[in-house]
Amino acid sequence: MGEEEIIALRTAKLERLRSRGIDPYPTRFRPSHTTRQALDLLEGRDQSANPVTIAGRITAMRHMGKATFLDLRDGSGRIQTYLKQDILGPETYETLHDLDIGDFLGIRGPLFRTKTGEPTVQVEALTVLAKALRAPPEKWHGLQDVEVRYRQRYLDLMANTEVRDVFLARSRIITAIRRFLDDRGFLEVETPVLQPAAGGAAAKPFVTYHNALDRQLYLRIALELYLKRLVIGGYDRVYEIGRIFRNEGVSAKYNPEFTMLESYQAYADYNDVMDMVEEMISTVAGEALGDTTVAHADTKIDFAPPWPRLTLRDAIKHYSGIDFEDYPDVESMQRATASCGVAVDETWGRGKLIDELLSAKVEPNLIQPTFILDYPVELSPLAKRKPDNPRLVERFELFIAGREVGNAYSELNDPLDQRERMLQQARLRAAGDEEVELADEEFLVALEYGMPPCGGLGIGIDRLVMALTGQPSIREVILFPHLRERGPS
User: Fold this and answer.
1) pTM score, whole prediction
2) Which of 193, 305, 361, 482 could tie 278 with a disulfide, CB 3.0–4.6 Å?
3) Which domains, from first to last, does the chain contain?
């Protein structure tokens, strides 16, 4: 039966309900229990509330003459219901002929177990709550079509219990992160989404226009520069969990808008932040998932600390054979990068070439949580130089399951050095490199008022959820991912 025929048939049932004086979309219904709570009742924990009133979507129907079994599902689970004509009466029982899988129904009755032990509600009264005019997915217990799953996530959530579980885990993970930071004296704040300058990261922004202000604005590409203003203003520990927007590619690892955690702690450096990240993620895994070990492909990822810590130099040398300290200029670095099979763009600076080596040769091998630290200054215009090697900065990136998940610095608080580095980034941009930081004059002015030593952190929440739930694609952990426009059918 085609979709139009199904809609027509269901619409006719809708009209029949109305002709019998039944409102298919009543204003309210008050359940006394969720399905999970009802099942707990039957286990003997509390018999005082039996019978129960439950509401949910019909997910299965089995007619047997003058008796019918219906499965109802709500946000907590599924329960079987048993409807008999001699209990409901012929007129009410007739209503079942105008119900379909996908409709919402409210029922009331006592709990019991069938002969096979199935927890069941003996229905004594029913209320139609919403008539669905479209049928749920044919593969009700396992929708697989990726296009449908992502474009119509509500169908995915209806059909796939494991998908609902992933997003429940995501919510618990974010709640656990907040609790961890709150317990350690961090203040959660909110900073502007629309910004006059797209600073804090090397990324292409989305551009918009504010009519009343008569000016161009940008959707933020990072949280960093406003959070640092708050440290300058006197808040010693701040964090924000918010949406970030970058006008870049769409893939299994990238979505144009994503969720970022950034935190800043005065009087801390990147070593302190590394310790905090280990403790935070292992704690979050235990609280949100009940375990610090997660299945990933054909192996397991163990989030229990301590985690390996490798310098960027040693990691690249180990996986590619190249020691970037042996190639101090752009030309020699280009030749070395190309020699190990990495495509090279002639506009790339030395830092970008080193970053490409990291992405191509090192990152795919970092399955267990691993910190890579001490990056070239060209790659990190907002990080403090290492005292014993001013060509490097105190920065680390966290990799899990072959993907970058976090990034952190000992934050640069020298306003003169910061201004010079931003000017250097501007020169790189003028030479054709678009993946550079843009100068933010208002931030530079704020920094001139003095910022204490500070450890800063950024963690991609979506990628962290991927790692903690064993998901291979970012689209599996974002409820409504961006997709390319449908082509002609």
Assistant:
1) 0.91
2) 305
3) 3-136 (2.40.50.140), 158-308+368-476 (3.30.930.10)
